[in-house]
Amino acid sequence: MECDITTRDGFMRRLAPLADQVVGVARRMVDASDDADDVIQSALAAAWAHRLRYVEGTNFRAWIFRFVVHEAWNANRRRSRSRVRRIEDDDVPDGSFWARLDADLAYRELLEDPAALYERLDQRLSGAIRRIGDEERAVLLLRAVAGLTCAEIAAALEVPKGTVMARLFRARIKIRERLAAVADDAPIGRAGR
Amino acid sequence: MRCQEARQFIWPYLDSDLDDRTIFLITRHLEDCPSCAAFFAREGALEREIGARLRATGGDEDAALARALARAVSPPGRWRRRLAVTVAVAAAIVALVATLVFLPDRQGDSPLPDLVAVAAADYRKLIAGAMGPEVGGDEPAAVSDFFRQRLGIDVALEPLAADGTAWQVDGARLCHLGRARVGLLILRHGGAPVSLFLVPVAEVVKFPGARAVAAGRPRFEVPGGHGVIGFGDDGRLHCAIGDVSPETLEGLLVAMN
Protein backbone atom coordinates (compact mmCIF):
# COMPACT_ATOMS: atom_id res chain seq x y z
CA MET A 1 0.00 0.00 0.00
CA GLU A 2 1.24 3.49 -0.93
CA CYS A 3 2.16 5.94 1.83
CA ASP A 4 -0.01 8.96 2.35
CA ILE A 5 2.16 11.81 1.10
CA THR A 6 0.15 14.44 2.91
CA THR A 7 1.86 13.41 6.12
CA ARG A 8 5.48 14.23 6.68
CA ASP A 9 6.39 10.64 7.35
CA GLY A 10 4.51 9.35 4.30
CA PHE A 11 6.08 11.97 2.06
CA MET A 12 9.58 11.05 3.22
CA ARG A 13 8.93 7.32 2.90
CA ARG A 14 7.64 7.73 -0.65
CA LEU A 15 10.70 9.75 -1.61
CA ALA A 16 13.31 7.51 -0.03
CA PRO A 17 13.53 4.96 -2.90
CA LEU A 18 13.99 7.82 -5.35
CA ALA A 19 17.03 9.32 -3.61
CA ASP A 20 19.56 8.28 -6.27
CA GLN A 21 17.35 9.47 -9.10
CA VAL A 22 16.28 12.77 -7.57
CA VAL A 23 19.77 13.70 -6.46
CA GLY A 24 21.32 12.36 -9.68
CA VAL A 25 19.02 14.31 -11.97
CA ALA A 26 19.40 17.50 -9.93
CA ARG A 27 23.18 17.26 -9.93
CA ARG A 28 23.33 16.70 -13.68
CA MET A 29 20.71 19.30 -14.46
CA VAL A 30 22.32 22.32 -12.81
CA ASP A 31 24.95 24.35 -14.59
CA ALA A 32 26.82 25.01 -11.36
CA SER A 33 27.28 22.04 -9.09
CA ASP A 34 27.01 24.35 -6.07
CA ASP A 35 23.34 24.81 -6.90
CA ALA A 36 22.41 21.13 -6.67
CA ASP A 37 21.63 21.00 -2.94
CA ASP A 38 19.55 24.17 -3.12
CA VAL A 39 17.67 22.82 -6.13
CA ILE A 40 16.83 19.58 -4.33
CA GLN A 41 15.72 21.43 -1.23
CA SER A 42 13.60 23.92 -3.17
CA ALA A 43 12.06 21.16 -5.27
CA LEU A 44 11.11 19.13 -2.21
CA ALA A 45 9.77 22.21 -0.44
CA ALA A 46 7.63 23.03 -3.48
CA ALA A 47 6.41 19.45 -3.75
CA TRP A 48 5.59 19.42 -0.04
CA ALA A 49 3.71 22.69 -0.38
CA HIS A 50 1.69 21.23 -3.27
CA ARG A 51 1.20 17.80 -1.75
CA LEU A 52 -2.54 18.21 -1.44
CA ARG A 53 -2.76 18.64 -5.20
CA TYR A 54 -1.14 15.29 -5.86
CA VAL A 55 -3.76 12.81 -6.98
CA GLU A 56 -3.17 9.49 -5.28
CA GLY A 57 -2.80 6.69 -7.79
CA THR A 58 -1.13 8.88 -10.42
CA ASN A 59 2.56 8.70 -11.19
CA PHE A 60 4.43 9.99 -8.14
CA ARG A 61 7.82 9.86 -9.85
CA ALA A 62 6.65 11.98 -12.76
CA TRP A 63 5.05 14.38 -10.26
CA ILE A 64 8.15 14.80 -8.12
CA PHE A 65 10.49 15.23 -11.09
CA ARG A 66 8.32 18.07 -12.36
CA PHE A 67 9.50 20.09 -9.35
CA VAL A 68 13.11 18.96 -9.63
CA VAL A 69 13.38 19.96 -13.28
CA HIS A 70 11.66 23.28 -12.87
CA GLU A 71 13.79 24.22 -9.87
CA ALA A 72 16.91 23.29 -11.82
CA TRP A 73 15.79 25.43 -14.75
CA ASN A 74 15.17 28.31 -12.36
CA ALA A 75 18.63 27.91 -10.86
CA ASN A 76 20.21 27.85 -14.30
CA ARG A 77 18.34 30.95 -15.35
CA ARG A 78 19.47 32.72 -12.22
CA ARG A 79 23.01 31.79 -13.02
CA SER A 80 22.43 33.10 -16.53
CA ARG A 81 25.00 30.71 -17.77
CA SER A 82 22.49 28.70 -19.65
CA ARG A 83 19.37 30.22 -21.06
CA VAL A 84 16.50 27.91 -21.87
CA ARG A 85 16.76 27.67 -25.59
CA ARG A 86 13.33 27.39 -27.08
CA ILE A 87 13.18 24.99 -29.95
CA GLU A 88 10.21 24.55 -32.15
CA ASP A 89 8.55 21.29 -31.33
CA ASP A 90 8.39 20.27 -34.97
CA ASP A 91 12.14 20.78 -35.31
CA VAL A 92 12.80 17.05 -35.50
CA PRO A 93 16.07 15.97 -37.05
CA ASP A 94 15.60 14.01 -40.25
CA GLY A 95 17.53 11.11 -41.67
CA SER A 96 20.31 13.36 -42.93
CA PHE A 97 21.37 13.90 -39.34
CA TRP A 98 22.03 10.21 -38.97
CA ALA A 99 23.77 10.05 -42.32
CA ARG A 100 26.12 12.86 -41.31
CA LEU A 101 26.85 11.30 -37.95
CA ASP A 102 27.25 7.86 -39.45
CA ALA A 103 29.75 9.15 -41.99
CA ASP A 104 31.92 10.56 -39.26
CA LEU A 105 35.04 8.52 -38.68
CA ALA A 106 35.31 9.43 -35.01
CA TYR A 107 31.74 8.35 -34.39
CA ARG A 108 32.41 5.00 -36.04
CA GLU A 109 35.50 4.59 -33.91
CA LEU A 110 33.39 5.38 -30.87
CA LEU A 111 30.96 2.63 -31.79
CA GLU A 112 33.70 0.18 -32.66
CA ASP A 113 35.64 0.54 -29.45
CA PRO A 114 33.75 2.47 -26.80
CA ALA A 115 35.76 0.82 -24.02
CA ALA A 116 38.82 2.77 -25.06
CA LEU A 117 36.96 5.97 -24.33
CA TYR A 118 35.27 5.07 -21.11
CA GLU A 119 38.13 6.23 -18.98
CA ARG A 120 37.82 9.66 -20.50
CA LEU A 121 34.06 9.62 -20.58
CA ASP A 122 33.44 10.52 -16.98
CA GLN A 123 35.03 13.94 -17.23
CA ARG A 124 33.88 14.65 -20.75
CA LEU A 125 30.36 13.34 -20.30
CA SER A 126 29.57 15.85 -17.58
CA GLY A 127 30.76 18.65 -19.81
CA ALA A 128 28.87 17.29 -22.79
CA ILE A 129 25.66 17.04 -20.77
CA ARG A 130 25.96 20.59 -19.52
CA ARG A 131 26.48 21.98 -22.99
CA ILE A 132 23.21 20.73 -24.40
CA GLY A 133 20.12 22.87 -23.89
CA ASP A 134 18.18 22.79 -20.62
CA GLU A 135 15.07 21.22 -22.12
CA GLU A 136 16.92 18.48 -23.95
CA ARG A 137 19.11 17.84 -20.93
CA ALA A 138 16.05 17.40 -18.72
CA VAL A 139 14.52 14.85 -21.05
CA LEU A 140 17.76 12.92 -21.42
CA LEU A 141 18.36 12.77 -17.67
CA LEU A 142 14.79 11.83 -16.83
CA ARG A 143 15.16 8.97 -19.30
CA ALA A 144 18.68 7.82 -18.49
CA VAL A 145 18.97 8.59 -14.77
CA ALA A 146 15.41 8.56 -13.48
CA GLY A 147 14.35 5.78 -15.84
CA LEU A 148 11.08 7.46 -16.80
CA THR A 149 9.34 6.43 -20.00
CA CYS A 150 8.60 9.03 -22.66
CA ALA A 151 4.99 9.11 -21.51
CA GLU A 152 6.08 9.72 -17.90
CA ILE A 153 8.48 12.45 -18.98
CA ALA A 154 5.68 14.06 -20.95
CA ALA A 155 3.54 14.03 -17.80
CA ALA A 156 6.37 15.41 -15.67
CA LEU A 157 7.16 18.27 -18.03
CA GLU A 158 3.57 18.78 -19.14
CA VAL A 159 4.43 18.59 -22.84
CA PRO A 160 3.21 16.21 -25.56
CA LYS A 161 4.92 12.85 -25.85
CA GLY A 162 6.04 13.69 -29.40
CA THR A 163 7.88 16.71 -28.05
CA VAL A 164 9.65 14.52 -25.51
CA MET A 165 10.72 12.07 -28.21
CA ALA A 166 12.00 14.86 -30.44
CA ARG A 167 14.00 16.41 -27.58
CA LEU A 168 15.38 13.03 -26.59
CA PHE A 169 16.43 12.40 -30.17
CA ARG A 170 18.24 15.71 -30.38
CA ALA A 171 19.89 15.25 -27.00
CA ARG A 172 21.23 11.84 -27.97
CA ILE A 173 22.56 13.13 -31.26
CA LYS A 174 24.34 15.97 -29.50
CA ILE A 175 25.84 13.69 -26.87
CA ARG A 176 27.16 11.43 -29.59
CA GLU A 177 28.62 14.33 -31.49
CA ARG A 178 30.46 15.48 -28.42
CA LEU A 179 31.64 12.03 -27.45
CA ALA A 180 32.78 11.39 -31.01
CA ALA A 181 34.80 14.57 -30.78
CA VAL A 182 36.39 13.13 -27.66
CA ALA A 183 37.39 10.10 -29.68
CA ASP A 184 40.06 11.99 -31.51
CA ASP A 185 39.93 15.35 -29.73
CA ALA A 186 38.77 16.85 -33.00
CA PRO A 187 35.47 18.40 -34.01
CA ILE A 188 33.07 16.00 -35.57
CA GLY A 189 32.51 16.10 -39.28
CA ARG A 190 36.10 15.65 -40.44
CA ALA A 191 35.15 12.68 -42.60
CA GLY A 192 33.04 14.87 -44.78
CA ARG A 193 35.71 17.48 -45.25
CA MET B 1 11.82 -1.42 -44.48
CA ARG B 2 15.08 0.10 -45.65
CA CYS B 3 18.21 0.61 -43.57
CA GLN B 4 17.82 4.39 -43.25
CA GLU B 5 14.21 4.04 -42.08
CA ALA B 6 15.14 1.42 -39.53
CA ARG B 7 18.02 3.48 -38.16
CA GLN B 8 15.77 6.49 -37.81
CA PHE B 9 13.77 4.53 -35.25
CA ILE B 10 16.69 3.05 -33.37
CA TRP B 11 16.17 4.83 -30.06
CA PRO B 12 12.40 4.49 -29.83
CA TYR B 13 13.03 0.86 -30.75
CA LEU B 14 15.59 0.40 -27.99
CA ASP B 15 13.27 2.28 -25.61
CA SER B 16 10.35 0.02 -26.58
CA ASP B 17 8.46 3.14 -27.47
CA LEU B 18 7.09 2.11 -30.85
CA ASP B 19 3.84 0.56 -31.95
CA ASP B 20 3.75 -3.20 -32.49
CA ARG B 21 3.71 -2.99 -36.27
CA THR B 22 6.84 -0.79 -36.47
CA ILE B 23 8.64 -3.00 -33.95
CA PHE B 24 7.77 -5.99 -36.10
CA LEU B 25 9.03 -4.32 -39.28
CA ILE B 26 12.31 -3.27 -37.66
CA THR B 27 12.86 -6.66 -36.06
CA ARG B 28 12.33 -8.35 -39.42
CA HIS B 29 14.74 -5.90 -41.06
CA LEU B 30 17.38 -6.61 -38.43
CA GLU B 31 17.04 -10.34 -39.08
CA ASP B 32 17.72 -9.74 -42.76
CA CYS B 33 20.38 -7.04 -42.43
CA PRO B 34 23.56 -7.95 -40.52
CA SER B 35 24.91 -4.42 -40.91
CA CYS B 36 21.92 -2.82 -39.19
CA ALA B 37 21.79 -5.59 -36.60
CA ALA B 38 25.41 -4.88 -35.65
CA PHE B 39 24.74 -1.14 -35.66
CA PHE B 40 21.73 -1.53 -33.37
CA ALA B 41 23.72 -3.75 -31.02
CA ARG B 42 26.61 -1.30 -30.81
CA GLU B 43 24.34 1.70 -30.38
CA GLY B 44 22.44 -0.15 -27.66
CA ALA B 45 25.68 -0.86 -25.86
CA LEU B 46 26.77 2.76 -26.13
CA GLU B 47 23.40 3.98 -24.87
CA ARG B 48 23.58 1.63 -21.90
CA GLU B 49 27.11 2.78 -21.11
CA ILE B 50 26.15 6.45 -21.27
CA GLY B 51 23.17 5.73 -19.02
CA ALA B 52 25.34 3.87 -16.55
CA ARG B 53 27.86 6.71 -16.46
CA LEU B 54 25.10 9.24 -15.92
CA ARG B 55 23.53 7.15 -13.18
CA ALA B 56 26.85 6.65 -11.40
CA THR B 57 26.25 7.89 -7.88
CA GLY B 58 28.50 9.72 -5.52
CA GLY B 59 27.38 7.42 -2.73
CA ASP B 60 25.90 10.22 -0.69
CA GLU B 61 22.51 10.49 -2.37
CA ASP B 62 20.52 9.18 0.59
CA ALA B 63 22.22 11.64 2.92
CA ALA B 64 21.75 14.52 0.46
CA LEU B 65 18.07 13.76 0.10
CA ALA B 66 17.60 13.40 3.84
CA ARG B 67 19.35 16.72 4.40
CA ALA B 68 17.19 18.47 1.84
CA LEU B 69 14.03 16.86 3.20
CA ALA B 70 14.83 17.89 6.73
CA ARG B 71 15.15 21.50 5.62
CA ALA B 72 12.29 21.50 3.14
CA VAL B 73 9.67 19.57 5.05
CA SER B 74 10.52 20.15 8.65
CA PRO B 75 12.62 23.25 9.21
CA PRO B 76 14.53 23.14 12.47
CA GLY B 77 13.54 25.68 15.07
CA ARG B 78 16.36 28.10 14.39
CA TRP B 79 15.73 27.99 10.65
CA ARG B 80 12.05 28.56 11.23
CA ARG B 81 12.77 31.53 13.46
CA ARG B 82 15.10 32.94 10.83
CA LEU B 83 12.37 32.49 8.25
CA ALA B 84 9.86 34.26 10.48
CA VAL B 85 12.24 37.18 11.00
CA THR B 86 12.94 37.35 7.27
CA VAL B 87 9.23 37.34 6.45
CA ALA B 88 8.54 40.01 9.06
CA VAL B 89 11.32 42.25 7.72
CA ALA B 90 10.15 41.69 4.14
CA ALA B 91 6.57 42.51 5.12
CA ALA B 92 7.70 45.69 6.84
CA ILE B 93 9.68 46.75 3.77
CA VAL B 94 6.73 46.00 1.48
CA ALA B 95 4.40 47.96 3.75
CA LEU B 96 6.81 50.90 3.83
CA VAL B 97 7.27 50.92 0.05
CA ALA B 98 3.54 50.58 -0.50
CA THR B 99 2.92 53.47 1.83
CA LEU B 100 5.46 55.66 0.05
CA VAL B 101 4.17 54.72 -3.39
CA PHE B 102 0.47 54.80 -2.78
CA LEU B 103 0.02 57.57 -0.28
CA PRO B 104 -1.06 60.79 -2.00
CA ASP B 105 1.33 63.64 -1.77
CA ARG B 106 -1.22 65.67 0.13
CA GLN B 107 -3.20 63.02 1.88
CA GLY B 108 -4.79 65.49 4.27
CA ASP B 109 -6.37 67.37 1.39
CA SER B 110 -7.62 64.30 -0.40
CA PRO B 111 -11.05 62.92 0.35
CA LEU B 112 -10.32 59.95 -1.94
CA PRO B 113 -6.71 59.14 -1.22
CA ASP B 114 -6.85 55.60 -2.55
CA LEU B 115 -8.27 56.48 -5.92
CA VAL B 116 -6.16 59.55 -6.54
CA ALA B 117 -2.93 58.01 -5.28
CA VAL B 118 -3.11 54.86 -7.36
CA ALA B 119 -4.39 56.74 -10.40
CA ALA B 120 -1.48 59.16 -10.08
CA ALA B 121 0.92 56.22 -9.80
CA ASP B 122 -0.44 54.76 -13.06
CA TYR B 123 -0.26 58.16 -14.69
CA ARG B 124 3.44 58.37 -13.75
CA LYS B 125 4.02 54.90 -15.18
CA LEU B 126 2.42 56.00 -18.41
CA ILE B 127 4.59 59.11 -18.59
CA ALA B 128 7.70 57.06 -17.87
CA GLY B 129 6.81 54.60 -20.62
CA ALA B 130 6.47 51.75 -18.13
CA MET B 131 2.89 51.27 -19.26
CA GLY B 132 1.36 51.60 -22.72
CA PRO B 133 -2.00 51.38 -24.45
CA GLU B 134 -3.59 48.05 -25.26
CA VAL B 135 -5.31 49.58 -28.23
CA GLY B 136 -3.97 52.53 -30.19
CA GLY B 137 -5.81 55.77 -30.75
CA ASP B 138 -5.52 55.75 -34.54
CA GLU B 139 -8.99 54.24 -34.82
CA PRO B 140 -11.49 56.00 -32.53
CA ALA B 141 -13.99 53.22 -33.21
CA ALA B 142 -11.51 50.64 -31.95
CA VAL B 143 -11.13 52.54 -28.67
CA SER B 144 -14.91 52.70 -28.23
CA ASP B 145 -15.22 49.00 -29.02
CA PHE B 146 -12.46 48.22 -26.55
CA PHE B 147 -14.28 49.86 -23.65
CA ARG B 148 -17.62 48.40 -24.67
CA GLN B 149 -16.30 44.86 -24.97
CA ARG B 150 -13.91 44.82 -22.01
CA LEU B 151 -15.86 46.89 -19.48
CA GLY B 152 -19.35 47.14 -20.93
CA ILE B 153 -19.24 50.91 -20.97
CA ASP B 154 -19.80 53.42 -23.77
CA VAL B 155 -17.26 56.17 -24.06
CA ALA B 156 -17.86 59.23 -26.21
CA LEU B 157 -15.50 62.19 -26.16
CA GLU B 158 -16.04 65.66 -27.51
CA PRO B 159 -13.25 66.28 -30.06
CA LEU B 160 -12.44 69.71 -28.68
CA ALA B 161 -11.70 70.86 -25.14
CA ALA B 162 -13.49 73.91 -23.72
CA ASP B 163 -10.53 76.11 -24.70
CA GLY B 164 -10.81 74.98 -28.34
CA THR B 165 -7.77 72.69 -28.23
CA ALA B 166 -8.30 69.29 -29.80
CA TRP B 167 -8.16 66.20 -27.61
CA GLN B 168 -5.74 63.76 -29.14
CA VAL B 169 -6.53 60.13 -28.27
CA ASP B 170 -3.32 58.10 -27.90
CA GLY B 171 -5.04 54.88 -26.91
CA ALA B 172 -6.80 52.92 -24.23
CA ARG B 173 -6.14 50.13 -21.79
CA LEU B 174 -7.47 48.44 -18.71
CA CYS B 175 -5.79 48.82 -15.37
CA HIS B 176 -6.45 48.30 -11.70
CA LEU B 177 -6.89 51.05 -9.20
CA GLY B 178 -6.59 49.17 -5.96
CA ARG B 179 -9.05 46.31 -6.37
CA ALA B 180 -11.14 48.09 -8.98
CA ARG B 181 -10.92 47.19 -12.66
CA VAL B 182 -11.10 50.41 -14.59
CA GLY B 183 -10.66 51.75 -18.09
CA LEU B 184 -7.95 54.23 -18.95
CA LEU B 185 -8.29 56.64 -21.84
CA ILE B 186 -4.87 58.01 -22.77
CA LEU B 187 -5.08 61.53 -24.13
CA ARG B 188 -3.08 64.60 -25.03
CA HIS B 189 -4.14 68.19 -24.77
CA GLY B 190 -1.87 70.48 -26.72
CA GLY B 191 0.88 67.92 -26.38
CA ALA B 192 0.45 67.58 -22.60
CA PRO B 193 -0.35 64.07 -21.32
CA VAL B 194 -3.73 63.48 -19.72
CA SER B 195 -5.07 60.24 -18.27
CA LEU B 196 -8.77 59.69 -17.82
CA PHE B 197 -9.67 56.79 -15.54
CA LEU B 198 -13.20 55.47 -16.00
CA VAL B 199 -14.52 53.51 -13.04
CA PRO B 200 -17.60 51.46 -14.03
CA VAL B 201 -20.61 51.74 -11.77
CA ALA B 202 -20.12 48.24 -10.39
CA GLU B 203 -16.57 49.10 -9.29
CA VAL B 204 -17.38 52.42 -7.64
CA VAL B 205 -18.34 50.68 -4.39
CA LYS B 206 -14.69 49.75 -3.98
CA PHE B 207 -14.03 53.40 -3.13
CA PRO B 208 -16.10 53.91 0.02
CA GLY B 209 -17.19 57.47 0.46
CA ALA B 210 -16.61 58.38 -3.16
CA ARG B 211 -20.25 59.20 -3.83
CA ALA B 212 -20.36 61.62 -0.96
CA VAL B 213 -17.32 63.65 -1.96
CA ALA B 214 -16.97 63.37 -5.72
CA ALA B 215 -20.24 65.08 -6.56
CA GLY B 216 -18.47 68.41 -6.28
CA ARG B 217 -15.60 67.43 -8.57
CA PRO B 218 -12.78 68.00 -6.06
CA ARG B 219 -9.37 68.92 -7.42
CA PHE B 220 -6.01 67.56 -6.31
CA GLU B 221 -2.38 68.22 -6.87
CA VAL B 222 -0.41 65.21 -7.97
CA PRO B 223 3.24 64.88 -8.94
CA GLY B 224 3.60 66.32 -12.43
CA GLY B 225 0.15 67.84 -12.71
CA HIS B 226 -3.35 68.02 -11.36
CA GLY B 227 -6.25 65.71 -10.77
CA VAL B 228 -10.00 66.06 -10.77
CA ILE B 229 -12.61 63.46 -9.90
CA GLY B 230 -16.33 63.47 -10.46
CA PHE B 231 -19.33 61.40 -11.39
CA GLY B 232 -20.83 61.09 -14.82
CA ASP B 233 -24.58 61.22 -15.37
CA ASP B 234 -24.72 57.45 -15.66
CA GLY B 235 -23.16 56.94 -12.19
CA ARG B 236 -19.69 56.19 -13.53
CA LEU B 237 -16.78 57.69 -11.59
CA HIS B 238 -14.20 59.63 -13.58
CA CYS B 239 -10.72 60.61 -12.50
CA ALA B 240 -8.72 62.85 -14.80
CA ILE B 241 -5.03 63.44 -14.19
CA GLY B 242 -2.72 65.42 -16.40
CA ASP B 243 -0.14 68.07 -16.89
CA VAL B 244 -2.79 70.66 -17.69
CA SER B 245 -4.83 73.12 -15.68
CA PRO B 246 -7.53 71.84 -13.29
CA GLU B 247 -10.07 73.73 -15.38
CA THR B 248 -9.13 71.76 -18.46
CA LEU B 249 -9.48 68.51 -16.54
CA GLU B 250 -12.83 69.58 -15.18
CA GLY B 251 -13.89 70.42 -18.72
CA LEU B 252 -12.91 66.92 -19.73
CA LEU B 253 -15.14 65.45 -17.02
CA VAL B 254 -17.99 67.64 -18.18
CA ALA B 255 -17.39 66.55 -21.76
CA MET B 256 -17.60 62.93 -20.70
CA ASN B 257 -21.17 63.47 -19.54
Characterise the protein shown here.
The complex is a heterodimer of chains A (193) and B (257). Chain A has 193 residues and is mainly alpha-helical. Chain A contains ten helices and no strands. Chain A has helices at residues 8-15, 19-29, 36-49, 60-79, 95-102, 105-112, 115-131, 134-144, 150-157, 161-184. The radius of gyration of chain A is 18 Å and the shape is elongated. Chain A starts with 7 loop residues before the first helix and ends in a 9-residue tail after the last helix. The termini of chain B are far apart. Chain B has helices at residues 3-8, 10-14, 20-32, 34-55, 61-73, 77-102, 113-128, 140-151, 201-204, 210-213, 246-256; strands at residues 135-136, 167-177, 180-189, 192-199, 219-222, 225-231, 237-242. The chains are: A mainly alpha (193), B alpha+beta (257). The interface between A and B is large, with 47 and 35 residues.
Beta content of chain A comes to under 5%
Question: What is the terminal-to-terminal distance of chain A?
Answer: 60 Å
How much of the polypeptide of chain B forms β-strand, as a percent range?
Answer: 15-25%
What low-confidence regions of chain A span 5 or more consecutive residues with pLDDT below 50?
Answer: 81-92, 186-193
- Note the total helix count of chain A: 10
Q: Can you give the helix content of chain B as a percent range?
A: 40-55%
Shape of chain B: elongated
Strands side by side in the biggest sheet of chain B: 1-2-3-4-7-6-5
How helix-rich are the residues of chain A, as a percent range? 55-70%
Mean pLDDT of chain A, nearest integer?
A: 76
Task: List the SSEs and their pairings.
The complex is a heterodimer of chains A (193) and B (257).
Chain A: H1 8-15, H2 19-29, H3 36-49, H4 60-79, H5 95-102, H6 105-112, H7 115-131, H8 134-144, H9 150-157, H10 161-184
Helix pairs in contact in A: 2-3, 2-4, 2-8, 3-4, 4-9, 6-10, 7-10, 8-10, 9-10
Chain B: H1 3-8, H2 10-14, H3 20-32, H4 34-55, H5 61-73, H6 77-102, H7 113-128, E1 135-136, H8 140-151, E2 167-177, E3 180-189, E4 192-199, H9 201-204, H10 210-213, E5 219-222, E6 225-231, E7 237-242, H11 246-256
Antiparallel strand pairs in B: 1-2, 2-3, 3-4, 4-7, 5-6, 6-7
Helix pairs in contact in B: 3-4
